[in-house]
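Retro notes
What went well: the complex prediction finally ran end to end.
Inputs used:
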Amino acid sequence: MGAQLRLTDLNLRFGGIKVLNDVGFEVEPGQIFGLVGPNGAGKTSLFNCISGHYRPSSGSITIDGEEVLGTAPATLARHGLARTFQHPALQLQATVLENVLLGAHTRLSGGPVEWALRLPRLARSERELRIEALTLLERNGLGWAAHRRADELSHGLHKGVELCRALLSRPKLLLLDEPAAGLPHSEVEQLIETVRRIRHDDDITVVVVEHHMGLIAALTDRVVVLDHGAKLMEGAAAEAQSDPRVIEAYIGKDAADDVA
Amino acid sequence: MSSITGFLSRAWVRWAITAVVAVALLVVPLLFSEYTNQNLARIGVFAVAVLGLNVVMGYTGQVSLGQIFFVGVGAYVTGYGATHDWNIVVVFLASVLVPGVIGLVVALAAARLGGLAIAMVTIALPIIGVPLAKRLSDFTGGSQGLSSAFSNAPDWTGLYNDQWQLYLVIVIGGATYLLTRNLVRGKYGRAFAIVKSNEAVAASMGISPYRYKVLAFTVASLIGGVSGFLYMAVIQFTSPETMTFSHSITLLASMVIGGAASIIGSLLGGAYYVLVPQWSNDINPNLTELLQGALLLLTLFLLPGGLVTLPREIARRLRRSRPDGGPERRQTPSAEPAPGREAVEETPTVGGIPTQRPTERQEQA
């Protein structure tokens, strides 16, 4: 079951700079929710607040009704939150399969002593997980790369591996930070298919930060537009694209007047 | 090359290799001279110390300059227990747990600090350890040191002392190697590796960097304690000199030369620690340190991954010198048949190769 996410009056400051200003919205379970806005609007900072990497100065973040503000990222991950990063951070020396297996860390039981003794139970769970990871890679068109080193693959494929890594943790809430950045057109279409399938098959709530308006329009149920750290509007992607305030934020007031 | 790794990855081949190695280890102490046996036992002692250092530094990326301190504490606890006629099992457990607890406490404080600060805290350990060992003469025998012949061969074995001690090292050190090898693979190996390379990603995978640094540091000090026990068993004497800072640095150099984040590399590191000073001493006693420094630099330039990467480096150079480039595929042992050639042809249909370089395409939000 996908998680419900609610943000209320979220503020984030770095010294004197207000990065987020009273941002609030609600994501229903199973939704694909878009977070858009020009460069520097605070989208990634907002993501970092949700995933626990930044600590907001005030406000509230709840997942399934439970307050998670100030919770360490590692704890949040254990409670069903997974994310990808703008720049895929893979272990370049390790194989693709090892990279994906990392995502399942929280699903593997056993403490260090048990793993040092390599109890049969743990060896079995590791084997089962390998098969599951291979299947997941296969499903995302990366099965052929499983035993290759990550540094042999292209940037676009790294993004796919990172997504698989996040999925193997079986998240309830998945945060995708600019999944289409730097992808050629063909791969963006494939990404859209993949995210749709994830939502359909695995029933995950997805929040996606993206510049690529085509992707946002094709994928999201609802979007929030951020500008200068504040919420500009909320609605369907099509409404956002035609909203004069959004156009103004993206291309400037004068240009917006010219368009009108 | 790939046919060799393919052959090695077969289950029965690996079992056979394991059996041969086990038999060889059991026979070795009976074959060689006393001098060789003592040398091998010393290599084992320091190979275990380097292994511990590798857990915290090679695998988890936390600079530790205090590993020798834990070896020293382990040796002192062993010496103290043995001279007070404790049961040998109790001696062993104490010699491992006391350094382990000290390591845990130090790590709880030090791992809160980032990067170089951890290194600074660990420098303090041997620096404090030496005068402390001199002061606490009731426990440590002061500057005179502590000696104990607890590890002489029991009569029922019919073995010479050097043989018995080498058996101790092989059994206890071997068990430590096996346990550590298991730990640094699978769940904990992956967690250590991601803490080393990217703490933000580690955290988003549910891995608390702090807890895993503390864990790695504690494991390293436990293993240091094992090394200390074996040290006392083989050398039968310890003094404040055992844990001087310079020994810690030599351990670190041994780890790098053997191969960081490698089990076999730790073993090679132990051999380096014991054998190279002997060799350089044989060549010219006045140039010992110079020769060691030269060897360190040579290894770093020619084999940045340590001696353990030597076969791989040779294979890579041979491949390069072939006109067709040779088979470029790298394979890892796995039950899954390598998808092989057709996999390469599939690539374009998966999405093709990006047309631009990554650095040009990345945008900041």
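What we learned: The radius of gyration of chain A is 19 Å.
What to try next: split runs per interface for comparison.
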